[in-house]
Amino acid sequence: MSSDGNNPDSLRKRSGSALCLGPRKKVASSNPLVLHGWHFGRTVFALCNYPSLLTAGILQLEELQDSPIEDYPADVRWEHRVFMELIDSYPGLLDHLMNGEEEDVIHVGELLGDDTKTLKSAVLEWLVPRGQVVIPPLSRNIKSDRGFNHEVTGALLCPAGLDWSNAETKQNLKSGETAVRGDQWPMFLYAGYDYNPKDPWKGLLKSEILVYGFKHIFTSPSSVDKEPKATRSGNAYLHGMKSVTKGSVAYIATQVRFSLSSSSVFSWTDTVTDSENFYLSILDLLEDPDESQEVADLITWWMRRIFPNSSSSQWCISTNSALSKIHARRAALQEQASVGTT
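RE: above sequence
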């Protein structure tokens, strides 16, 4: 991991930072700016205090006329990067700001509560293989019987490295005697719910339940059981989303984790679910330059699952295809030319 001085996780949580949530109230709007802010939160960074971020970002642009961003502390560089991603992602945003549309800016980062509400019911379909039933049954509207209070959800939420089948471990988790911090990642993050302590990257963030959750929110609920594509009603299509981002993976993991828990109301600052720490710890790993190769492989895996027709998701050319033969012929000609010149 990077040292604390360059660690975005430790920097995002500093008091007064624009990358910390500010006061919020629920808002419903068809304003494109507000809707784009919701999508930006899902895919890039969900915890911004957007008014502060935008105000500080504009002032920073003026200061950068005299000195490069590299001269500033790591937390300022990270905040500026998020600001620039937001500005670049929405043409005309600076004009909105300059025209004084403060009310739009206040709500630009508000996330729809629909994600939490719809996943609460949908996740029950993904807990066991198709054709099987959850025993005992779980309520779609009441969450008190989920979390460590149920055998199935408890096993999925059990921190990697702990043994859910151990009666004492199970009881301590259920009673709360064993407190689970956000950076103690649960088993459901791993493919096949199998954690290898000697290779903790193996299968990380590649579970089917995460893929289902991603499709449900980004490509439409109906796409979970169908060929992966962005339907006209999905968030990916509506916002021109053609790639899986690090932020979107961290966001989906956070939403699925909450849907499995027994907590009834989602709050980033809830100390029991510790959702903020969970989200930031995953995003911190995905942003860590020392883990860039593993992260690149992970995003490629996600691209193949969500956007299989995207050029960035293509791993290799089909064997015996015309294109593969053209490439083989070209390689042979280049080799012959190389031999002829030596």
